[in-house]
Structure formats: structure tokens, C-alpha cells
Amino acid sequence: MRIAIVNLGGNQGKTTLAVNLFSPRIPGAKILAVETINGAGNDLGIDVEKLRGEQFSRIYAELAAADDLILDVGASNIEDFLLGLERFEDGHDEVDLFVIPATPAKKERTEAVKTAVMLSDLGVEASRITFVFNRTQDVETDFGDVLNFAKKTGQVTANPDCFIPESELFSLLADKKLNISQALNDQTDWKSELKAARATDDKKGFQKAADMVAIQKMAKAMDRQLQYVFERLTAGAEG
Description:
InterPro entries: P-loop_NTPase (IPR027417), StbB-like (IPR047985). The chain is of the alpha/beta class. The chain is built from ten helices and seven strands. A seven-stranded parallel sheet has the order 3-2-4-1-5-6-7, with helices on both faces.
């Protein structure tokens, strides 16, 4: 399956979705970051290839050659990427699903909607454009206007079940340069490490162990939610 994670704005969680939601569930899929500014997934413990939005011919070739690919389009390159989609006849045809992460602030909601409109105007069907509601505890309250837009226009799919709750897990993972798969596979007894650090008054070791205990305690539940979201996002999508 070939997925493009896009948004006109930054800090919406695109790379987090690429690394923690999609990569573990699409085995063998390369992550291609269309980015010039941010560190992309390399900072989250996973190999990522980088291209610029202006290199659309190469991006399209990568999509056409792949059965599975995760495209993480950074805000600094989204305009060049969309321009490439426009210049190529049906330039979007090699993407199975465009995923637009949206966060609750008004500016970010507006940018998410604008992204959906631009993709729709390029000829992408609503069934291939979908929102993921990020950093929220109540989709209906936080994204009521976005849900209404989707229902009224029919330009984009908006399933309120496709949400990722607000959690400090992802910031902790980023601080440790880890992804959720690495956290789930970590067999270290961090509670014992925590006690040992306290006994020796190792403040640095104590903080690291405390963070890792928190990561271990949050990762399983979050991974279940990510699996739930993935199944709903990809139901019926072609791969």
C-alpha cells in the first residue's frame, strides 16, 4: 500500500504517524521523507530516505515502482509536491491513500481542510483522502467543523474513530530517539533500573529509568489504538 501523509501546516504529527502508525503495519515499506528542514524519521529510530518536493519526477518513480511506500511530505515541501501532482497527468494515481493529520487548534484545522480541498481539486477521490484526528480526547468537540465540512462537501473521508489521543508518549519517544516498535520490543526491567538508580542516588539514571517505565506503561495501549485506526483507515483501500 502506498500512503502519502500530507498537510499544508507543520507540527501536525505527520512523521509520528509515518513511523509509529504506518511503518510497523506495512512490512517492508520504505519511508520517503519529502523534506528539507526537519529531521524526519531518522530522529525516531528508523531509516528514512529524503527527497525534496521539487524532485517530483523521482518521487513519482518511487511510487510507481513500489507496492508499499510511506510518503511523509513536510510542510516546507508540500507546495512543490502538490505542484508536481498538478503537472503530471493524474499525478496522484500512484497513491492509494492521502492521510491528512489534523490537530485541534483553529489554524491547524483550517490548514487540514485546505489540504483536503487542494487534493480534491486535483481530482483525488474522497475515498482516497482521509483525516486522522491527532492529539485529541474528544473528536466531536475538537473537530466538529472539520466533520461538518467533510459531510457537507463530500470531498474527504472523516471517520471520528480515526483519532490518536493526546499523550506524552510520543514526546518521550522522540526524546529517546525511539519509535513505538522499539519500545514494545524492549525487554529491559526498567522498574529494577529505577530502584537501583534511587539506591545509588544516580539522578540521571533515575530520570532515564522513570521515562522508560512511563514509555513501557503507555506503549501497549497506544499501539492498540494505532492498530484500531490503521484498520479503519485502510479498510477497502487498494494496495
